Amino acid sequence: MLSNPSDVLRAKELYQQGREALAKGDIAGAIPFFRGSGNLDPHFKTFELLGECLLLSGQPVAAVLPLAAVTGLNEEVRAPSLLAEALLLAGEHLRAGLTARRVLGLASSNRRAQRVLADPSVISALSHYDS
Prior knowledge:
The chain is an all-alpha fold. The chain has helices spanning 5-23, 27-40, 44-56, 60-73, 78-89, 93-106, 111-118, 120-130. The protein has one domain (5-130): Serine Threonine Protein Phosphatase 5, Tetratricopeptide repeat. It contains eight helices and no strands.
């Protein structure tokens, strides 16, 4: 176990507060709860939601780290597809494209990854990379 029991309990409380803020549409208000929860007890869903909130609040560069961490902690495709979008919005077109390709290799119908790969800047970056 990475955290002591009291930290795990507090992390769960903060996570729930973050979920409640999200349910009310308070994306910016959810961010500190998810950050606090993740600092006490790193869990993939906490970091996934933190990254998504950062992305939705216009902070794609800040979203990259938690989403990259989740991508390493979990084998689902939601986090890496969010990561591809964050990288695109951060101007990292090649990395966005490569990440989106990996997502589509796991889930060929993932719409977010398809949108990233359809971006002209990503198409150009991948064209240069592939040649």
